[in-house]
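Order emerges. For instance:

***
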Amino acid sequence: MFYAPAGGGVSTYLNAKSRWLQRRSSVRHTILTSNMPSHDNVVTLPYLPVPGLHGYRWPWPIRRVTNILCELQPDIIEAGDGSSGAWASLHARDRLGIPAVAFYHSDTPRLLKRRFGRVIEAGGEWYMRTVYRDFDLVLAPSRLMVQRLAAMGVKRAVHQPLGIDSVMFRPERRDSSFREQIGVGPETRLLVYAGRFTPEKKLDILVDAVCKLGASYHLVLVGDGVTPPRRCPQVTVLPFMHNQDDLARVLASCDALAHAGDGETFGLIALEAMACGLPVVYTGGGIAELVDHSCGLRADPDNVGSMCGAIEALFARDMPALAANARRRAADHYDWNTIMPQLLARYEGALATVAPTVPEGNRRYVAD
């Protein structure tokens, strides 16, 4: 459901997986989505439009989605969210006698709590526990999300980080003309955020912090969404960038990444910025597992003053050393050439534990 033309980390992950597999393996990889027309290895699913999903479409009906999955005759299915597509994945799993993997990309109960309160969050946790307990393998991109799933009752989730293309994202992408293009002088300290403009990203904190810091700081916001950021002279808003070359150029041309959202399940944009040589100011979530003191600073969530202090403290440090540390940490530990073999090993393990095909309703499970 979250794979879309203007999607975030999920779309980036699936596109990177497709490219990697196409170049380095004989694996046939098909993406099923309700948000895009069929092309190449993408298959369009029927859908039900649901208000409030930021433009994403709910795959529907489940039986038809299940039939489409079965027609592809896959050896393994990965469900990228807990929507109706997850139930279709489980139904197809039982028909075909293959493993079904769930990847917990989005912390849905927490998002529900922000919007509707604790009671609805509890309902979301019950739903996630109900759907994910039947998968053969549940992957989570951060240890924090493994803990969150365990607290919901999903006890066997496994930590599997995502990755970045460290050849695409590197300091050499820096464009010396970028500052002139956005009307910023060479002495200005240039911060960047890239991602969807939604309430949970807390862009108002970033904008308020930069405005408070004064004219020596400037913030570049790259993306789009339902909550346009507040405009001020110290903020430049650029549209969502479909081309990763363009995004890498913008990131590498700035001085640091600033991220006020504390609910990221992973924080792929932080890694992409680090690979470009940018230290990171962050507030928590999965990003806290990617950044340490050698390449960034942590601010308190929902606190403009703390964000200001962390940004000022960052620029008071040895920025070239922070940049080198950020690049090294991202490229050495999170390049797709390191991460993708880990993921394939997870798939192989799931395939090895599933019994041969048996009639639907009589499937046997092997505990690991």
Remarks:
- The CA atoms of residues 165 and 335 lie 6 Å apart.
- The domain at 171-333 is CATH 3.40.50.2000 (Rossmann fold).
- The radius of gyration is 21 Å.
